[in-house]
Amino acid sequence: MHSIPKLPKHTCDTHVHVFEPTQFPYAAKRAYTPGRASVAQLLAMHQSLGVSRVVLVQPSVYDTDNACLLDAIARIGPSRARGVAVVDLNTVSDDTLASLHAGGVRGIRLNLHVSGEAGLAHVQQQVLAAKRLAQLPGWHLQVHASMAVQVALLDTYARLGLPVVLDHFAGGAPDNSEGHALLQPLLHAMCTQPLYVKLSAAYRMAAGCNASALTCAFYQAAPTQVLWGSDWPHTGGAGGQGRNPEAVEPFRDIDNQDALTHITQALGSDAAVHQVLVSNPAHLYGF
User: Fold this and answer.
1) 18 vs 26, 40, 194, CA distance in Å?
2) CATH number belonging to domain 12-285
């Protein structure tokens, strides 16, 4: 039984989703159909943990319609909430990006698990399109992909001129020789590039991935570039494999308190916990 940590003031959860299908219908073309996960439910979960700041991330079921995301940011308030949107970086207008910025958005997400990781050259072009974001103050690119793809893109990330946030333990790496071979260039890049890693959704990693060991490795490599996210409300799958958009897919039953306690214990000190939960997100998202 883990003791429940008292979180520092201004703790920030950097990865949650809100689903309001009645007010904001899902995209017709989607991989799955989640149930409702409201702002009120989100705030209640955060109150139970002691979390006061949040970053809402656009889920794939809304495609590039960020209306639900912007509504949630506005309801929570600009002192407590930021957002990471999804757009087509090749076609989105400067006016739309400016409007997103005014609404509290500070980054754009590329979900390569949903859009597909095939064709590295195509993926590189998607990533390089994010150079447009460097014109916006305090913006970054967030990428959801396997660690193998993240490592393959390290040189491309270095050409962007803006921070890059790697989702879900950077895709995770198994605790074996193959995993270590992937992890080492990523850790080296974190020392020389503005690469952030989210300690989020350990339950999404493949068997053999050690979340505590990865937490320590990322923090030791770049203490100012590690974030924490709950991944609430814990959608059921990964990518579009084996999912049925015709049926409402239940959320996973995840103990958010236990997951966060594992992170804080792996970090090991009050100073490290404050760095990851408060200082780093405040700097990246502009709180």
Assistant:
1) 12, 10, 28
2) 3.20.20.140
pLDDT one-digit tens code per residue, 242-263? 678 889 999 999 999 999 999 9
Say whether pTM exceeds 0.85: yes
β-strand partners of 60: none
For the chain, the structural domain boundaries read: 12-285
Low-confidence ranges of the chain (pLDDT < 50): 1-2, 239-240
